[in-house]
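Re: the pair you flagged

First of the two:
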Amino acid sequence: MATDSNSGIDGSGSAPGVDESVGGSSDGSSRADHSGDDLLVQRDSDQEPSLTIVMPTLNEEEGITECMDRAKTAIAELGVVAEIIVSDSSTDRTPEIARELGAIVVEPDEGGYGNAYKYAFERARGEYIAIGDADTTYDFEELPKLVKLANQDDVDIAMGSRLDGEIKSGAMPPLHQYVGNPLLTAFLNTFYDAGVSDAHSGLRVLDADALDRLDLETTGMEFASEMIMDAAAKDMTIAEKPITYHEREGEATLDSFQDGWRHVKFMLVNAPGYLFSLPAALLTLAGIAVMGLSLFGAQLGSLTFGLQTMIGGSLVTVVGYQIGTLAMFSSLATDPIREPRDPITSRIRGNFKLEHGASLGLLLFAAGALVLSYGVVGWTITGYAAVPSATVNLLASTVTLLGVQTVFCSFFLSMLATAEN
C-alpha cells in the first residue's frame, strides 16, 4: 500500500497532531487542534487532500447537514487535509446545502448508485477514499477507525460492519437484518471467498491504489457487491470494524425486492461455476444413478425402480448435461469477475479440442444407436409386438441423444474458442 509522506496520514495509521488513540470517539468530540472546516479544501485548491469523502445523494436535504458536520468532525479528529465530494442527482435543495457547507458538488451524467460513485471517483484526489450514504444511517464520525485500518500495510479496503456492530431500533427492517443482508453476504462469501460479515455495508475506506486496481462497471445498487467481488477475485485484503447503523432521515430510495434481486442476479451471473457447473454435476450424477438402478430393477424399501423411474432418470440426466454445456459456453463467451474454478470446466477449457469432443460424441451416438438397432430388429422379429427391454432402449436413446448433443456442442465450443482468440 502506497503512502505519501506529505499526505498527513503516516504509515503508523496516525496523523500529525492527532492522538495515537484516534479511531472515532463515541461522543463525536475532536482531539485535534483545528476544525474540519479549516482542513477542507475545494477543487481549485493547490493543496492536495489526503482523504476524499464521497457521498452519493438523491434528495437528502433532511440528512446532508448532519452527515457533513459529522464528516468534518472525523476530518478534524484525523487532522488531515480532506475534500468532501457530493455526487448529486437531487431535485431538492441537497446540492445547495452541501455547497454552503463546503462540499464539492458534482452531477453525474447518468443516474444510479454505481454511476454516482464512479463519477466522483474520477474526480477524487485523496490518497484514501471514504464512501458513505448521506441519509444519516452511517455515522461519519466513525471514519477515523476505518481510515487507520485502511492505512495498515496489508489492508486494501476497510469496511464498517453493521451486523457485527449495532443496528439501532427502526434503522433496518427485520427482513433485511435477519434474512436479506446475511443471506446476500453468505452468497458472496461462498462464491468469492470474501470473508466479510456485512457485504453490503455502505461505509468503506479504500486505498486509492486499491481503487485503481478495481474494474467497477455496474451502475446500480449492485455496485456495492461488485466492489467486494472484484476485490476478492483479485486477492485484495478486506478488513472490517464494527459500526453503528442509525435510522435514516428522509424518504427511503431502496426497493427491497428489486435491489436485492439485482444483487443476487449479478452475483450468479459472475459465478458461472455455481450457477451452471454445480447444478449440472449434481443433476447428471443423480440422473445416471436413477437410470442405473432402473436398468437392474433395483428395489429400495417400498420403491421399485423400473420404466417410469428410467424416464425420470433420463430427463434429469439430459437436463443436467444441458446445463453443463451452458457452463462451458459461459466460460468462453462471457467475462465474469472470477472465472470458473471447478475441475471439470477448468480441464475442458485448458485442454479442449474439437476432435476430442466430436469423437466422444460420435462414440456415444454409435453405442446408443447400436443398442437401439438391436431393439428394432428384435421388435421386427416378434411381429411388432411389445418393445423388448423398454428400459434398455430408453437408456440407449438417452446415450444417443447425449452423443448428438456432444458433437454439435463441440463445434460450438470450438467457434467460441476461435472467436475468443
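Second of the two:
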Amino acid sequence: MTHLPYIVASYGLAAIMALVLSMGAALRLKRDRARLAALEQTHNRNAGTSFTP
C-alpha cells in the first residue's frame, strides 16, 4: 500500500491553510490602511483649526 494519497492530502491542506491565512492578512492590511488614511485625513483637517493660547 502506498502512502502517496495521505502525503498529497497533507501537503494540499497545508497549501490551502497558507492561502487562507495569507488572504486574511491581505484583507486586514487593506482594511487597516483605509482606516489609517481616514484617521490621517481627519487629523490633517483638524490641524489647521487647533487653538493655541
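The mean pLDDT is 90.

-B.
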